[in-house]
Design a protein that fits this description.
Length: 260
């Protein structure tokens, strides 16, 4: 599990590094701009990390399945010969998807104001500003949403169906709770990631608001990667103890003026 968590942490850092510096620079400028090459590079890396995380979350779900449903064979199912190729395949999966979209986007013709009403470059936004035919790009986008987004999500669901069925067969409620706690952090991460990515790309076009769109994209690219380390750290006893001490000290400070 910690091997895959190291890859997830790397993805979280890369996510923020791709978008946040440009957002901060443009926030300080009177006229926010981004060059064509920078826009393509930002779109390429952003889609690479998004596709990689989709595949990696499915691999992590399989890891939880092997740990809970096949505990005696876990060392065999998740040996270094298995987990290293799985992690590498996740990165290659995202890289190939991003390379296809970027290559198709470079063939588009842009004219007019060339304004992107957003905080970062993304494929749907470029298609709206293009002057040439975008049918191939749109078909590639729909195909990617099935193979890169939906298929890993279905694998996660299938893994958790087997996991929940195994947990329900445990007679002791204490053991059921402890077993479920081993995959609770991953489940929360899956809900956050797929919830934000669905909200970012599948919202209805009616009632479009630039402010709402910016807020959703900020949650998707900045807030969610920031929350992942915190979610997994809550299983650590030292982190739990420090958090409890912080909350108790704040509670005492807020109650002290009332006693005086």
């Amino acid at each position: 599990m910690y091997y895959f968590l190291s890859h997830l942490s790397c993805l979280d850092i890369c996510y923020s590094s791709v978008t946040l510096p440009t957002i901060l620079v443009n926030f300080l400028r009177q006229q926010p701009i981004i060059s064509y090459n920078e826009c393509m590079a930002q779109m390429f890396f952003l889609m690479t990390f998004a596709g990689t995380e989709c595949a990696l979350l499915a691999v992590m779900a399989y890891d939880r399945y092997a740990a809970i449903c096949e505990p005696l064979r876990y060392s065999q199912l998740m040996s270094s010969r298995v987990r290293v190729p799985l992690a590498a395949a996740s990165w290659i999966w995202g890289l190939l998807d991003s390379a296809i979209h970027t290559a198709l986007a470079t063939d588009l013709a842009f004219c007019g104001a060339n304004e992107i009403h957003h905080i970062f470059c993304d494929v749907p936004l470029l298609l709206k500003t293009a002057c040439s035919d975008t049918y191939t790009n749109e078909m590639a986008l729909h195909t990617a949403s099935i193979f890169v987004g939906l298929c890993p999500f279905l694998l996660v669901l299938i893994s958790y169906v087997y996991i929940l069925s195994s947990i329900l067969q445990i007679r002791s409620s204490t053991r059921r709770r402890k077993t479920f706690s081993t995959c609770a952090a991953h489940l929360i991460t899956v809900i956050l990631f797929y919830g934000m990515i669905n909200l970012n790309y599948n919202r209805p076009s009616t009632g479009y608001s630039l402010g709402v769109d910016t807020l959703v994209s900020t949650l998707y690219c900045i807030i969610t990667p920031m929350l992942n380390p915190l979610i997994y750290s809550l299983r650590n006893r030292e982190v739990k103890g420090a958090l409890q001490k912080l909350l108790s000290s704040q509670g005492k400070e807020s109650a002290s003026p009332g006693r005086q």
